[in-house]
C-alpha cells in the first residue's frame, strides 16, 4: 500500500510461478511482475516441502524497485486461490480447475461430492460468506500431456487451433483421469482413457476431446452445486490460462446451458486479494464501491446448442467416466 492509500498490491502464488500486481482504486493494473520457477518437489515417492516466501517477495521486489507506488507496503489481506470471488460461481482454468460457488452467510454441507469452505470474512466491510468448492485434478496439464508426451503440437497455446480443424470430437471421449478423478466423482482408481477411436480419428478429434474433458467435469461440479444449494446458477465467471480459448469457453457454455463471462483483465484471483487488502485499509468502503469494477471489455459466451443435445453429450461422458474406473486396481 502507498502511504496515501491510493493503490493495492496483490501477490498470486501458484505452483510454478509467483505474480505480483498493483491495482489502482478503479481495479486497473498499473504495474506487474511474474517470476517462474520449477516445481520443487519430487512426485515419487515423497514430496518435499519448500517455503514460497522468497518467490513471493522476489516478484514484489521487482515491482517495488521500478515503482514508487510500492515504496511503503504492508500485508493487509491474504486469500487462498479462488476465494476472492464476491458472489456467484467462478471457475479458474489452470493446470487443474477450481470452481467456487458463493452460497451466502450460512454454510451448505454438500451431499454431492463437494467441499464446504469460507469464501471470505470482511467483517463490517463485506460480511462473511461461505462457498461450495469443486476441484478438477487435470485441466491445463492434459494439454501439456499432448504436447510433451505425445508430440501433438509444439506449443500448448496452439492446441485449440488444432481442435478447430475438425467440426466435432469425431465420437471420441477422453477421460483425463491421469491420477484419478476429483469432484464430484472421487474415483481414485480411474485412469486416463480414450473411447470412440476409429480408423477415421485424427489428431484434431483427440485435441477437441481433451479440451472437452475439462468442460464436462466443470458441468458435473456445477450440477452438484445446484443440487446442494437448491438454487439454479445463471452465469459462470472464468479466469485462468485455458479461458483464453474461445473454443473452450463456447464449449463450456454449450454444456452448462448458461452464459460464460470472461473478463478482459483475467488476473481475477490476484484482484480478489487486492480487494481484501483494499477493504482492510480503506481504499474501498464496501462491496458497493466495486460493482462496476473489471466489467469493461468482457466477453459473454452464450449457449449455441439446445438442452437435449447438451444432455446427450453429457450422458456419453458419464458413461465414459464409469468405464474409466478400476484400472489402477488391476
Automatic annotation (TrEMBL):
<dbReference type="GO" id="GO:0004370">
    <property type="term" value="F:glycerol kinase activity"/>
</dbReference>
<dbReference type="GO" id="GO:0005524">
    <property type="term" value="F:ATP binding"/>
</dbReference>
<feature type="domain" description="Carbohydrate kinase FGGY C-terminal">
    <location>
        <begin position="90"/>
        <end position="280"/>
    </location>
</feature>
<dbReference type="Pfam" id="PF02782">
    <property type="entry name" value="FGGY_C"/>
</dbReference>
<dbReference type="GO" id="GO:0006071">
    <property type="term" value="P:glycerol metabolic process"/>
</dbReference>
<keyword id="KW-0067">ATP-binding</keyword>
<keyword id="KW-0808">Transferase</keyword>
<protein>
    <recommendedName>
        <fullName>Carbohydrate kinase FGGY C-terminal domain-containing protein</fullName>
    </recommendedName>
</protein>
<keyword id="KW-0547">Nucleotide-binding</keyword>
<dbReference type="InterPro" id="IPR043129">
    <property type="entry name" value="ATPase_NBD"/>
</dbReference>
<dbReference type="GO" id="GO:0005829">
    <property type="term" value="C:cytosol"/>
</dbReference>
<dbReference type="InterPro" id="IPR018485">
    <property type="entry name" value="FGGY_C"/>
</dbReference>
<comment type="similarity">
    <text>Belongs to the FGGY kinase family.</text>
</comment>
<dbReference type="InterPro" id="IPR018483">
    <property type="entry name" value="Carb_kinase_FGGY_CS"/>
</dbReference>
<keyword id="KW-0418">Kinase</keyword>
Amino acid at each position: 500500500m502507498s502511504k496515501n492509500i491510493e493503490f493495492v498490491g496483490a501477490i498470486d502464488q501458484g505452483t510454478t510461478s509467483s505474480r505480483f500486481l498493483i491495482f489502482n482504486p478503479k481495479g486497473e493494473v498499473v504495474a506487474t511482475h511474474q517470476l517462474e520457477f520449477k516445481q520443487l518437489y519430487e512426485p515419487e515417492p515423497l514430496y518435499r516441502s519448500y517455503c514460497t516466501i522468497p518467490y513471493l517477495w522476489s516478484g514484489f521486489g521487482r515491482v517495488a524497485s521500478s515503482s514508487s507506488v510500492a515504496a511503503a507496503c504492508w500485508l493487509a489481506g491474504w486469500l487462498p486461490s479462488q476465494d476472492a470471488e464476491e458472489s456467484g460461481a467462478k471457475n479458474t482454468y489452470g493446470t487443474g480447475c477450481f470452481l467456487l460457488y458463493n452460497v451466502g452467510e450460512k454454510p451448505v454441507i454438500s451431499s454431492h461430492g463437494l467441499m464446504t469452505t469460507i469464501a471470505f470474512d470482511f467483517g463490517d466491510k463485506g460480511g462473511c460468506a461461505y462457498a461450495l468448492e469443486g476441484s478438477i485434478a487435470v485441466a491445463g496439464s492434459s494439454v501439456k500431456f499432448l504436447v510433451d508426451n505425445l508430440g501433438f503440437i509444439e506449443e500448448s497455446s496452439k492446441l485449440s487451433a488444432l481442435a478447430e480443424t475438425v467440426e466435432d470430437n469425431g465420437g471420441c471421449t477422453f477421460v483425463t483421469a491421469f491420477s484419478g478423478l476429483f469432484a464430484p466423482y472421487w474415483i481414485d482408481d480411474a485412469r486416463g482413457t480414450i473411447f470412440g477411436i476409429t480408423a477415421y480419428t485424427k489428431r484434431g478429434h483427440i485435441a477437441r476431446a481433451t479440451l472437452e474433458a475439462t468442460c464436462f467435469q466443470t458441468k458435473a461440479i456445477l450440477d452438484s452445486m445446484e443440487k446442494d444449494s437448491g438454487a439454479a446458477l445463471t452465469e459462470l465467471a472464468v479466469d485462468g490460462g485455458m479461458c483464453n480459448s474461445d473454443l473452450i469457453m463456447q464449449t463450456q457454455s454449450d454444456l452448462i446451458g448458461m452464459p460464460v463471462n470472461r473478463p478482459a483483465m483475467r488476473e481475477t484471483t490476484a484482484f480478489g486479494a487486492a480487494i481484501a487488502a483494499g477493504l482492510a485499509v480503506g481504499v474501498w468502503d464496501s462491496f458497493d464501491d466495486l460493482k462496476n469494477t473489471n466489467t469493461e471489455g468482457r466477453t459473454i459466451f452464450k449457449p449455441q446448442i439446445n438442452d437435449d443435445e447438451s444432455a446427450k453429450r453429457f450422458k456419453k461422458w458419464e458413461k465414459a467416466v464409469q468405464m474409466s474406473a478400476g484400472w489402477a486396481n488391476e
